[in-house]
Structure formats: structure tokens, C-alpha cells
């Protein structure tokens, strides 16, 4: 008798749990909440979006045609993503990850070796919507995509930057994310004659939010442990609710003059156009010998791409314009 009562109780419990789970899984409220969440994640409130990419300042013949064609294809792809309502943060990450994986730039797979013959990569990403940022510096090819590691930090940590082996350990700990830690150390290409191929991207999405990111292998034959401007928020990368900036060039100057933030400051406090703000920020480093370039974008979709080197490979696309690639 006792056994029958226990079994009945167990069956009732099982049924109640099951129907509760079924209700949770299939209730109209849940479906509505999921639909709302999907709508919140998609940016389709506005018509306009803009994206700008750079593949490094300083004119380099290295696979120039191939790199230009690659950027053009990437712009076409990014245009579709932004049109479909992907956020600026996600599209900036996507664009930089593609460039890292291409091997055509000095970032990710194509990173140049330092003096010791080892690749040390830097990257950062910033979400202008909420001022969150993530960065890695001096990471090895154990991390396939430094920009993904930077985004992972932005999304999971209250800290902004992790360096070296400890950055790799952090990323590995949050193992469920698609960051692809390689079990074996991998090497970048050793083309030290191609030192300018840092990559960066800024975007404005259909929510009106801005984001910026930058990724690099740094200077060829750099001293081990040297970190440039690319992973430093305010130096190589910056985004807020008004501007998004990614820099390339001689990193030490961009760090000392806090160039990426300077663009934002000139824009906000001096009420300059984005073109004037970016140009003035770059002009400040020139008398001291600083060379490089900037891509910048404001929340109205205005673009600036000044550089004081012979060239800066770059591309732009918007909701109303076709992809355009330029070098000089
Ligand atoms: N800014 C990068 C660095 O100094 C290099 C570059 O952009 O070419 O590491």
C-alpha cells in the first residue's frame, strides 16, 4: 500500500514538473519574450548605417590588388549585415576577424614576428553605446583571433585589458566562447618588409550606435614585450555615443598624444566636424615625427580618413552608397 502511494506521488510530481517545463518552453509569454529579445538585438529602427575599414597606413605594394579586392568583398558582406540589423559592435568584430583570418594584413594569421621571431599581437574593441571596452596585448598565436578575445573581455569582464599568457588563460577559462585557442603555438608570416598592415574598423548601426576596433601584429622586429597603441583605449581605438575612431601608424605617438580620444575631445569640446577633428588630432603628432592615419565616424554618419603617410588602404560603405576602396 505504501509503495503504491509513493509511486503515485512520484508520478504526480513528474507530471507537474513536466507540464511546468512544457509551459515554460512553449508558453505564449515565452514566445513573445523571445521575439522581443530578438527584436531588441536587431537594429532596424533607422534606415542609415555606415562602415569604414582600414588595412594600415604607409604605402605597401605587398599584395595590394588582392588586399583591395578583399576589402571590397568584406564591405559588401558588412553592408548586408548592417542592413539586416546586426549591431555595430558585432559587425566591427566580424570585419576585423575576417581580416585577421585572411593572412593579408599584419594582424591575426598574417602577424609579423618580433625580434625573437615570435608573434605578439594586440587588439581592442569598444562599444560606443555603453562605453564598454575589451583589449588584449602581447598575445601569442595560441589565440587565433585577438579581436574575438578582446570582445570576449568586453562582454564578460569588468576589466578592460589582459596581457600575454594571462590573457590567453583568461580566454581559455571562458572556454565556451568561440575564440579558438590553438593547442599548438602557430607562427605568423615572417614578411617583416610589410610592417604596415594593422587593421581597424568603425561602424554606425541602424540603432544609431557606434563601435570601433583595431588589431595588429605591431611593428616587424619590434622588441619583445613592446605594446603599441592598437590595444590602448583612447590611443588606437575609441568609441562613444558621438564618434568612433581607429588609428594606425607609429603607435608610440598615438599613445603619447592619446590620438583616438583626442579626435573625440576635439569633436565634442571644440564642436569641430569629424573631418576637422581627425585632421587636427593627426596634425598634432606630425611635427614630432609621428606618422600614420585615422578612420573616424560620427553618429550622423560623417566619415574622416586622414593620413600623413603615402597611402592608407581603406574602404567605406553605407546604406546609401556602394563599397569604395582607396589607397592614396
Ligand atoms: N599602430 C601599430 C603599432 O604601433 C602599427 C600600425 O598601425 O602599423 O603597433
Q: How far apart are the termini?
A: 90 Å
Residues in β-strands, percent: 15-25%
Summed over residues and divided by their number, the pLDDT gives a mean of: 87
Low-confidence stretches: 9-29
- How do the SSEs run, as a string of H and E? HHEHHEEHEHEEEEHHHEEEE
Biggest β-sheet: count, sense, barrel?
8 strands, mixed
- Radius of gyration, taken over Cα atoms and rounded to an integer in Å: 23 Å
Treating each run of at least 4 consecutive H or I residues as one helix, how many helices? 9
Task: State the CATH architecture of the largest domain.
Answer: 4-Layer Sandwich
How is this structure best described in words?
The chain has nine helices and twelve strands. The chain is an alpha+beta fold and 328 residues long. It folds into two domains: 2-38; 48-326, (Glycosyl)asparaginase (Glutamine Phosphoribosylpyrophosphate, subunit 1, domain 1, 4-Layer Sandwich), CATH 3.60.20.30. Helix 3 runs antiparallel to helix 4 (88-102) and helix 8 (259-269) crosses helix 9. The longest helix has 25 residues, at 2-26. The chain is globular, with a radius of gyration of 23 Å. The model is unreliable at 9-29 (pLDDT under 50). Residues 56, 196, 198, 216, 218-219, 228-230, 236, 248-249, 251 line the site of aspartic acid (ASP).
Amino acid at each position: 500500500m505504501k509503495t503504491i502511494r509513493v509511486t503515485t506521488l512520484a508520478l504526480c510530481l513528474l507530471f507537474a514538473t513536466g507540464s511546468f517545463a512544457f509551459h515554460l518552453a512553449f508558453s505564449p509569454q515565452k514566445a513573445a519574450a523571445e521575439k522581443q529579445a530578438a527584436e531588441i538585438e536587431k537594429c532596424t529602427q533607422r534606415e542609415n548605417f555606415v562602415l569604414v575599414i582600414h588595412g594600415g597606413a604607409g604605402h605597401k605594394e605587398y599584395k595590394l590588388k588582392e588586399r583591395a579586392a578583399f576589402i571590397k568583398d568584406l564591405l559588401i558582406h558588412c553592408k548586408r549585415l548592417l542592413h539586416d540589423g546586426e549591431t555595430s559592435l558585432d559587425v566591427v568584430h566580424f570585419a576585423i576577424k575576417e581580416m585577421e583570418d585572411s593572412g593579408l594584413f599584419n594582424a591575426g594569421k598574417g602577424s609579423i614576428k618580433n625580434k625573437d621571431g615570435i608573434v605578439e599581437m594586440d587588439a581592442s574593441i569598444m562599444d560606443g553605446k555603453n562605453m564598454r571596452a575589451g583589449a588584449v596585448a602581447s598575445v601569442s598565436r595560441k589565440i587565433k583571433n585577438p579581436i574575438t578575445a578582446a570582445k570576449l573581455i568586453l562582454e564578460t569582464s569588468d576589466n578592460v585589458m589582459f596581457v600575454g599568457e594571462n590573457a590567453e588563460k583568461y580566454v581559455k577559462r571562458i572556454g565556451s566562447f568561440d575564440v579558438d585557442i590553438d593547442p599548438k603555438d602557430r607562427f605568423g608570416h615572417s614578411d617583416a618588409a610589410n610592417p604596415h598592415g594593422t587593421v581597424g574598423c568603425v561602424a554606425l548601426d541602424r540603432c544609431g550606435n557606434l563601435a570601433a576596433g583595431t588589431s595588429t601584429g605591431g611593428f616587424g622586429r619590434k622588441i619583445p614585450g613592446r605594446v603599441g597603441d592598437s590595444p590602448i583605449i583612447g590611443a588606437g581605438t575609441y568609441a562613444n555615443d558621438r564618434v568612433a575612431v581607429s588609428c594606425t601608424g607609429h603607435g608610440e605617438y598615438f599613445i603619447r598624444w592619446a590620438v583616438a580620444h583626442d579626435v573625440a575631445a576635439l569633436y565634442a569640446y571644440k564642436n569641430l566636424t569629424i573631418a576637422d577633428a581627425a585632421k587636427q588630432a593627426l596634425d598634432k603628432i606630425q611635427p614630432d615625427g609621428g606618422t600614420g592615419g585615422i578612420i573616424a565616424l560620427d553618429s550622423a554618419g560623417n566619415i574622416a580618413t586622414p593620413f600623413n603617410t603615402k597611402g592608407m588602404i581603406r574602404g567605406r560603405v553605407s546604406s546609401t552608397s556602394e563599397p569604395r576602396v582607396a589607397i592614396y
